[in-house]
Structures are given as C-alpha cells and as structure tokens.
From TrEMBL:
CDD domains (UniProt xref): PCD_DCoH
Keyword presence, Signal: no
GO MF annotations in UniProt: 4-alpha-hydroxytetrahydrobiopterin dehydratase activity
Protein name, UniProt field: Putative pterin-4-alpha-carbinolamine dehydratase
EC identifiers of the protein: 4.2.1.96
Pfam families, alphabetized: Pterin_4a
Gene3D superfamilies: Transcriptional coactivator/pterin dehydratase (3.30.1360.20)
Taxonomic path: Archaea, Methanobacteriati, Methanobacteriota, Stenosarchaea group, Halobacteria
Annotated keywords: Lyase
Organism of origin: Halolamina litorea
Protein family: Belongs to the pterin-4-alpha-carbinolamine dehydratase family.
Region forming the signal peptide: none
Length: 91
C-alpha cells in the first residue's frame, strides 16, 4: 500500500495550480468552451486508466475540476502528486 504524505511532505510539492482540500488534492482547469473541457476530461480519464488511479472529474461549461486521493491509503500519496503533474502536462 502507498504511504500517506504528511503536511510537511506536501508543503511545496503540490504541482502548479493544485491545492490540498482535506485528504484530497484539487485543481480547477479553465476552458473557453464546453467541448474543450470535455476533451481534457477524456485526456485525464485516459491517463487515469493507464495508471489505474482514478480521480473525481467534474465537468462544467467552462471548467473541469479534478480531485485525487488514494482511497486505500486514506489520503494523499506520491501517486496523487504524480498524476496531478501528468494532468498539468495534458493541459
């Protein structure tokens, strides 16, 4: 099982644009239109499937919210940080 990161380990290590929200990390990505957001959501889903680590994805008209946590560890792990960085790369 993956090891939880504590507050000190998270401090300064969150990828650009990501914030901690309890036992999750979250980022809201902005888009000019709905279909661009849908396309990005699909990209995130493909990354998640490849890595077998699935986020919560909330699609809105001009933004997509992505949340990661490692459920079996009960919080944020290195895997969450790595996938958040991959989402940033896809953006």
């Amino acid at each position: 099982m993956a090891e939880l990161l504590d507050e000190d380990e998270l401090d300064g290590r969150l990828p650009d644009g990501w914030e901690q929200d309890g036992d999750e990390i979250v980022r809201v990505y902005g888009f000019d239109d709905y279909l661009s957001g849908v396309s990005f959501g699909t990209d995130v889903a493909e990354i998640a499937e490849e890595e077998f680590h699935h986020p919560e994805i909330v699609l809105r008209y001009d933004e997509v919210e992505v949340r990661f946590t490692t459920h079996d560890a009960g919080g944020i792990t290195e895997k969450d940080l790595r996938l958040a960085a991959l989402c940033n790369d896809a953006y």
